[in-house]
Every structure is written in C-alpha cells, then in structure tokens.
Amino acid sequence: MAQVQEGRQAALPAALETERPKGTTSFGSASLGRLKEAARILAPFGVLAVIWWVIKASFDISDNVLVSPWAVITATVELVRVGILTDFIGLSIQRLGGATLIAVFTAVPIGIVLGLNKNVATAFEPFFRFLQNVSGIAWLPLAVVWYGLSNTTILLVIIYTLTLPLGFNTMLGIKTVPPRYAQMCNSLGASRLRVLRDVYIPGALPNIIVGFRLGIGYGWRALIAGEMLAAQGGLGDMIFQARTANLIDQIMAGMIVIGCLYLVMDRLILQPIEDVTVGRWGVLRS
Amino acid sequence: MTRANGRPKIEVQDVSHWFMQQQTGDEVHALDAVDLTLRQGEFVTVVGPSGCGKTTLLNSIAGFIKPTQGTLLCDGKAIKGPGRDRGVVFQDLAILPWRTVRRNIAHGLEIAKTPKAERDERVAYLITLVGLEGFENHHPHQLSGGMKQRVAVARTWAADPDVILMDEPFAAVDAMTRLTLQEELNRLCLQTGKTVMFITHSVDEAVFLGDRVIAMTARPGRIKEDVKVPVPRAERDWSRYNTDPDLKTVTEHVLSLVRSEHGEQERAQHAEAVQ
Questions:
Q1: What's the rounded Cα separation, in Å, for the pair B117 and B94?
Q2: B139 vs B104: CA distance, rounded Å
Q3: What's the rounded Cα separation, in Å, for the pair B99 and B143?
Q4: What integer pLDDT is reported at residue B5 of this predicted model?
Q5: End of a domain among A15, A35, A60?
Q6: Strand pairing of B223-228 and B212-216?
Q7: Closest-CA residue to B96 (of A175, A202, A116)
Q8: What is the pLDDT of residue B274?
Q9: Pairwise CA distance, residues A76 & A59, whole Å
C-alpha cells in the first residue's frame, strides 16, 4: 500500500503518468488509497476544528465573539435550507465565471501581441509590475464612483484582477518560446498565423495555464471583497451583512464555504488542467 | 557531381553582410563578397573557423536574414524570405518538444495541407528510412541525441524541399553515432537527389559528404578555396575514406586551408587582446 502511495506521489508532480498504476493494484485497494488521501487532506482541518472547540468550551467565550463549530454547522445547514447559501454561491461563481471568460478573451490575445514584440514587452514590463501592485481592491473606490454599488463594479474588479496575471504570464510564455522554432516553422512554409498556432500558443501554454490559475485565485479573493462593498448578493455580501446583525455563526460559515469552494475549484478543475499541460510541457522542455 | 546536372539551383552573388553585435554594440563584418553556386543535386560542404560567417551564409540562403549587400537567387528568382523550397536542419534541431516523433516529422506536410493518407504514408516511409520505427509516438525528451537528429532530418526531408541547408547538424551527437548518421545522410541524399549545403567545422565530415568543399576564411568570411572531392559520393563509406589515397590528399589539403585560417584568427584575437 505504501508503495502505491509513493508511486502516486511521484506521478503527480511529474504528471506524465495519466494512467494510475491500475495494473499493479486491485480496484478495492486503489479506492482505499483514495480514501486515505482524502483523510490526509482532511486531517489538519479536523485538528483545527478540535482546537477551536476546546478553546470555545474551556474559556467560556461569549457567542458574540466566537461560536462553537457545531453552531457553524447548524448555521450552514440553515442557510442552505432557506436557499440563501446556494443562491449566493451560484451568484459568486457566475460572476467569477463571467469575468474569467472575458479576461481570457482579452488578456491572452494582449499577452500574445506583447510577447511577440520584444521591445514592446520590455517597455510594458514595469507597467505590468506597477499594476500588479495596485490590487483590484484598490480600484474599488474608483469603480464605485464610476458605476455605483453595482454588479458592474464587482465584475470590473475581478476582471482587472484576473487579467493582469493572465496577460503577464501569457507574455512571458510567448517570450520563452525559442525564435528558432518560428524560423523552423517558416522554412516549412508556415504563415504567420500558422506559426502562432503551431509554435507560440503551445509553447506558451504552460505559462498561460499558470497565469490562469493564479488569476482565478486572486480573482476569487477580489470577488469577495467587491461583493462586500457593492452589496449585490453573493458570498461576500452574505458575510458582510451577517456582521451588521452580529451573526458570528453565519460569518464563519460563509468564510469556510469561501475557502472550501476555492479548494474544490482548484483541486478538481485547475490542478488537473495544470498537470496535463504544465507538468507535461515542463518535463518535455527540459 | 554524382547527380549534378549543371543547372544552378542556388546562386550567391557578391554577398556581404555586416551586423551589430548585441552586447558590445560593435559592428561585425560577417561576410565579404561571397560568390557561390549550388547546382541541382549537388552536395556542397562549407568549412571554416568558428565565427567565419558560415551560419550567416546559410541564414541568408534560408531567407532568415537579408544580407547587407549582394544577390541571392533560388532557381533564378530572388530569395525574399524563408520558404518550403529550402528546408533547414538546425544545429539545435528545433524539434518541438510537445509534438511526438510522428507529428514532428509530419509538420511540414500538415502545413502544406497534404491529405492525411498520403501524409501518413510518407511519414511512415521516412520513419523507416531513418530507423525510428517503434518510436513514432515518443516525445523528443524520450529520445537520444542521435534519434533527435534523425527526427530533425526526417522532418526536413518529409516536406520535400528542393534544397536542404544543414547547419552543423551532427555537432551534438557522439562520435560513433555521427559516423552512422553521416553514412545514412549520404545514402539519403543520393536516393532523393537533393541539393544540399552542409556546414561543419569537421574537415573529415566535409570531405566525406561533399561533392565540393568550400573552405572559408576567418572573419570577414570569404571563400578561400572551392575544392572538388574526387571519389563519387555513391562509392563512399568510412572504410573507403580511411584508405583511399585521393581522399586522403584532399582531406590534407582542406585541413591545411582551415588550419592556416585558424592560425590567422588566433593571431588576430591575440593582437586584439594585447591592444
């Protein structure tokens, strides 16, 4: 069993093995292995919950400061029952999804154009770094002045947050493609568009994916902040509203949901994409 | 001269080139009034000390750079840029790491929109020809240096260019593999009748492969001598090369040309360093 675990551990970073070691293990022990892996991921959370519960129980802390884990669970169940949580999760994810779509269709082409032109890329790099340090949240005041407390304000902030790492990493990715590859492609008779398709985009793909993953992470944080301020529904709005009524249990439930949702997105969607591209390309490149 | 029918394929007329060195900002005089004609079906090798403009010459014919001065013709028409009539085998190979062996070799045919059936057939033929059977679905990082070399050569051949420009393609493979690859290349060129320009800094390689050996001077690169190699290419292999007195004489002659240039270059560098 230990060997199977080790095998998988090695396979994940390398990400070349798309096939699990099926041949060597029976189906039963493979699913047992998955169970063990899940247990390993969940264990620290369990420990944290226990510490939390012990603190709450042994120091007699008021419910206005900290509620028990159990209260958070009941609050979560209640929020789901009345439909608020599910609606707001839907709303937040929709916003993130929409912003991601817009960001991909703007940032990737811009990054490609910048990356293809060395001089422009060099000129733009400090500008990019400057913008990267003016976080999306810092744009909120301006966005509110322009668009009020609206959905547009929230979207603007997430799109901005997503666009930067995505565009920047796309540019870097394009720049890392050896010009030789393009020459080679040209001498095979390729048009400019063909070179872009056959050389630059696949060559930059690992960086694009990294930018995408970073962007979604930053975007998710910016989204929560934007929702808090703009008060147009969504998870950020939910926890900020709960504050006005001093509903500690709902605030904590919301925080946990925010963290868990990102973890799920990252583990089930982003990580697998990165594994099959970055891992693979990364190994291939070296 | 094995297959050369005398028709000029590539003509380099009075080509000179200067470029600015990126780091130092110095102007480099890479080529000086080079005249060279490659005839249809001819295998011409170019030797010279490093930095003598061999690669600049190749890049000009390939269309990657436009020389400062002079005329470059392919089939009598001016060379305006890279094109599929002139295939290139790069020193660093430039095999795409995300494509399998098969798809790397098929790349030129994909670009040319060759029908899939024909493409598959041609790629399969080339894979057999260069001895890569069983590795069709491997990625380049899974291959040895010699195998990668074969992929690069097969890719260029698959696109069926009239002219093939090779820039020290065997520099990075081990000595034993190199001998095999050279013999295979000789066979392949005779079979397909391509016009080839092959750059190398190995005199043995130049004489073994070429109908003619062009010896170049140190920078600025000029043609020092155009040496004809006596034994027909079809009759050459390494054992013949090692015993044939005519080949031996030619090799010694070319070697002396290259060595005198190498000495010049070293003296020049020394003089520069002293200043």
A1: 26
A2: 9
A3: 13
A4: 59
A5: A60
A6: antiparallel
A7: A202
A8: 64
A9: 24
d(C-alpha B190, C-alpha B4), whole Å: 11
H helices of B193-244, in order, are 203-209, 238-243
Nearest residue, CB atoms, A181 vs list B62, B96, B112: B96
Q: What is the pLDDT of residues B250-265, one digit of tens each?
A: 999 999 988 887 777 7
Which has the higher per-residue pLDDT, A195 or A279? Answer: A195
User: Domains along chain B?
Assistant: 8-85+161-274 (3.40.50.300)
B112 with A181: Cβ contact below 8 A? no
- What's the mean pLDDT when you consider all of chain A? 84
CA atoms within 13 A on the CB side of B25: 0
Provide the pLDDT confidence category of residue B38 given band limits of 50, 70 and 90.
Answer: very high
The HSE-up count of residue B48 (CA atoms within 13 Å, CB side) is 28
Q: Does the beta-carbon distance from B86 to A187 stay under 8 Å? A: yes
Residues B186 and B229 sit within 8 Å (Cβ to Cβ): no
Where helices occur in chain B by DSSP H, the ranges are 54-62, 101-111, 116-129, 145-158, 175-192, 203-209, 238-243, 245-274
> What ipTM does this complex have?
0.85
Note whether B159 and B109 are within 8 A (CB): yes
What is the separation of C-alpha A242 from the centre of its chain, rounded to a whole number of angstroms?
Answer: 25
Report how far residue B158's alpha carbon sits from residue B164's, in angstroms, rounded to the nearest whole number.
11
The secondary structure element, H or E, covering residue B244 is: none
Q: How many domains does chain A have?
A: 2
In this structure, are A261 and A178 located in the same domain? yes
Nearest CA in chain B to A183: B64
Verify that A169 and A118 share a domain, yes or no.
yes
Rg (chain A; Cα; Å): 23
Domain coverage including residue A245 = 73-285
Contact B107 A281 (CB under 8 A): no
Distance from CA of B245 to the nearest CA of A (A): 40
